[in-house]
Structure formats: C-alpha cells, structure tokens
C-alpha cells in the first residue's frame, strides 16, 4: 500500500494522527459528526486511499467501546431497515474505489457531506416553524417536537428515506469511512434523542465497519504496515471514548444536534479545500 509507515512519520505527523484517533473515540461515545475531522486529519497526513485502511480498525475499536456503553439504547427495527440499502451502497463504493483516485474520493465525499448538512438544517428549521405554528394555534407555549425515530421510520416516507440514506451511508463509509455524518443526519432527521441516537449508531457501525474489512483487504487498503500503525494509535481511542462518555451527559439535545451538524460541515469543507 502506498503510505508512510510508522517509522517514517515525523513527530508532528504522529501527533496529528494520535489526536485524530482520540477524536475517533470521542465521536463514538459523544458527537458522531466529529469523526469527519478525524477523517480529514488522516487524509492530510497519509494518502487519501491509504488513510481509509488505517482508520478502519480504529473505528471498529471505537465501535466496540460505543456498543459496550450504549448497547441498551439501540433501536433494532431501524437497523434492519437500513442494512440492505447500506449493503448496496458498500458494493457501489467498492466499485468506485477500484477506479477513483485520491482527489476524486475527497471531492465526492466532501460535497456529499455539505449537501446532507444543508438538507438537515433546512428540515430542522421547517420542523421548528411547524411546531411553533401548532403551538400558536393551540395557544400553548411552543417547544420543538416531532415524531420519534421509531414511529417515523415505520411510515412509507420513512422507509424511502431510510433506503436513500442507507445507500448513501454505505457508499460514503466504504469510500472514505465517512458514513458517520450521513447516518447521524438521518437519525437526527428521524427524531432520535441522544441515547437512542448513540445506541443505534453504535451497533450500526460495528456491524457495517466489520463487514467492510474483507473489501478493504481485497483492495489493498489494509495490510501489515497499516495494522502496525493502528496498534500504536489504538491506545488513543480509549481515552477519547471515556472523554466522550463523560461529556455526553453534559450536552443538551439542542447543542448535541448543532455539534453534529457543525462537525459534518467542518469535515466536508476540509475535504474539499485540501
């Protein structure tokens, strides 16, 4: 694989990757969209294609920690509806990786992330306006409300949206490990609260990321050199996950949503401008 080995990294480059690994752990137990910053940092130090192979085992380590933390809060009906569409997206992403160069990968994922963030902001504002209008009509104080994730997902429109986000999430997670923001935006738009959001996404990414390993090995993205670098960096994932677990209980729902969207935008812009 065309990448720098652990022994060829400078101190600053390793420190950058270590910080990105810390963010991986934090994103898995607190703000999922923060993972796009890790993606951008890895792509800044390593070749874009090679960076996805190094990042994947670290993501799986973070997924395991997230499942151990939030396993009781997963909503499995949502997961079962997403998996078939995600599988299709992973296949499409694999075919794309067989032909695309680093620039095409960065540009495609960055554009997708910004588009999905814009759509989510628009939908949240529309929901806020509808909630305020309903409150004014009823003569009661307005507080943003909406259908719960499980109720919305079971509707016909919810199933169509789940399939659309599922394919896009599968594609982005295979191409650049960037499925986190797509699934985060989907779960937010479905109305999931913090714990349901974190529990559902934890199981989702543990299963999806593990299933990607054979594809990544076949594409040459994971090899002995990348795993050696992972062995050094995984030590930073654990404290990041612990920090996220401590922080999530101190973040209210509105701030949580804003942080997820902001992290998605930052990651998308970084990929486009690099």
From TrEMBL:
It comes from the Bacteria. Pfam families: TauE. Residues 132-158 are annotated as: Disordered. Its main location: membrane. The keyword Membrane applies. InterPro entries: TM_pro_TauE-like (IPR002781), TSUP (IPR052017). Keywords: Cell membrane, Membrane, Transmembrane, Transmembrane helix, Transport. It is found in: Cell membrane. The chain crosses the membrane at residues 49-70, 82-98, 104-122, 165-189, 195-215, 227-249, 255-273. It is a multi-pass membrane protein. Belongs to the 4-toluene sulfonate uptake permease (TSUP) (TC 2.A.102) family. PANTHER family: MEMBRANE TRANSPORTER PROTEIN YDHB-RELATED, TRANSMEMBRANE PROTEIN YFCA. This is Probable membrane transporter protein.
């Amino acid at each position: 694989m065309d990448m720098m080995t652990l022994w060829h990294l400078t101190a600053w480059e390793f420190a950058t990757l270590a910080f990105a690994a810390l963010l991986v752990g934090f994103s898995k137990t607190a703000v999922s969209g923060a993972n796009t910053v890790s993606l951008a940092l890895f792509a800044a130090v390593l070749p874009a294609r090679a960076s996805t192979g190094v990042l994947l085992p670290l993501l799986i380590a973070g997924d395991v920690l997230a499942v151990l933390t939030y396993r009781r809060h997963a909503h499995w009906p949502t997961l079962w509806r997403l998996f078939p569409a995600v599988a299709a997206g992973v296949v499409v992403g694999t075919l794309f990786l067989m032909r695309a160069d680093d620039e095409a990968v960065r540009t495609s994922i960055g554009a997708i992330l910004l588009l999905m963030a814009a759509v989510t902001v628009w939908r949240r504002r529309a929901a806020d306006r509808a909630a305020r209008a309903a409150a004014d009509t009823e003569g009661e104080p307005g507080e943003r409300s909406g259908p719960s994730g499980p109720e919305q997902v079971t509707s016909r429109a919810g199933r169509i949206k789940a399939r659309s986000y599922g394919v896009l999430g599968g594609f982005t997670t295979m191409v650049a490990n960037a499925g986190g923001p797509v699934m985060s935006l989907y779960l937010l738009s479905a109305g999931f609260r913090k714990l349901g959001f974190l529990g559902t996404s934890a199981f989702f990414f543990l299963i999806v990321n593990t299933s990607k390993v054979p594809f990544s090995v076949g594409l040459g993205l994971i090899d002995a050199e990348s795993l050696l670098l992972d062995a050094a960096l995984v030590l930073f994932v654990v404290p990041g996950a612990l920090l996220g677990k401590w922080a999530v209980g101190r973040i209210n729902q509105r701030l949580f949503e804003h942080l997820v969207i902001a992290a998605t935008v930052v990651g998308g812009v970084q990929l486009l401008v690099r």
